[in-house]
Write the structure tokens for this entry.
Amino acid sequence: MKKYIIDGGKKLKGEITVSGAKNVVLKAIIAACLTSETVEIKNVPLINDFFIMLELVKEIGGTVQLSGHTVKIRVEKIENSRIPLDMGAKIRTSSMFVAPLLARSSEALIPNPGGCRIGARPIDRHIKGLEKMGVVSHYNSRDGYFHFTTEGLKGATYKFTKNTHTGTEVLIMASVLAKGTTVIENAAEEPEIDDLINLLNQMGANIKRVNKRTIEIKGVKRLKGTTYSIMPDRNEAVTFAVLSALAGGGIFIKNIEMDNIKGFLDVFKKAGGEWEKNEKGVRFYIKDGILPTDIVTAPHPGFMTDWQGPWAIFMTQAEGTSTIHETVYESRFGYVKELIKMGADLKFYQPKVEDPKKFYNFNYSEKSKSRQALKIFGGSKLHNAVLDISDLRAGATLAIAAIVASGQSVIYGVEYLERGYESFDRRLKSLGARIAALEEEVEL
């Protein structure tokens, strides 16, 4: 078990560079499996999820060569259509191997996927799309696998009932080698999807957005190898932006694409935040105090669900009461009880929603007792505590809180955080943060 020990209350300054996007590199690895030629991916983040995905490439018969932040992937032939149960349980993106496995070997055995405990993220949405493309599927509860077969992927028109980032990407990758034209309606419009589309088109695919929510894919016979550099991680950018604003405004962030975080910038400005851009990067700071806000998370281009944890900390320092209404996942407040330990004044509540099944992006149930919103009473003086991380974004949230709080905090569950942030402790140390990462033996 790994833990952080953080001595908080110190202002930070210096320069930090945003890594390549976690939510692109994992899909780019899968895209590389759609061709027998070598795909070189640059600007890869060296995070735990990345390394698990590389191991899965090897499991299906591929080879990988990693040098610095560049990886070369070649899957000359699919040797194995089964994703190992234990590895699939570690990372949700493992389910997306269904696309290259079906396209190149006509079968796929995919375990019920794992990942962070932020609520049910059903893969039934893209399974239905695959079935329309000529895929036969069934789930075997005895072996824990989804079994997929096809006599050949074929183009189809499919409309998602709710926004799904993963579902959109799976259907895109399943369609590039399918026979005929596929049209995805109500497709997700996150910039990470467009980055994946750019990679696939560079490999010889024929994909275009007809409009913001409709994607057309004309199947091709084969894809080729290429070299591609992935976009910066916008979640990491927002994490560092909030940290800068709370820790004195002296952090300059490099490799940040401001257009991709416009949903954050609009709210940050309303809250009294300002930013300065120069050759050192972008510096986020507060000039005249923090104003309270009312946030409703939403798919892109709205305020991203992954940003609400850091934003909650930001609002604990506001001059008044703020709210966050989570609409994308039903269990995204795993950090709340930990912030309360640190002196934050937080309270759950459930807003009145006219048609919750339509309003919420998850599969809403009337029997659910989850409360989807949080009131944040500003002006809290955060102090040290012993904290437990419940998921990836909660990990970054609690690390920020410990850095800006007074006293020494201990954070357990750092493994979750390291799924998505490369060398988090070392990079924050370079800014002056007093943080130590320690291994702790666990008795079995």
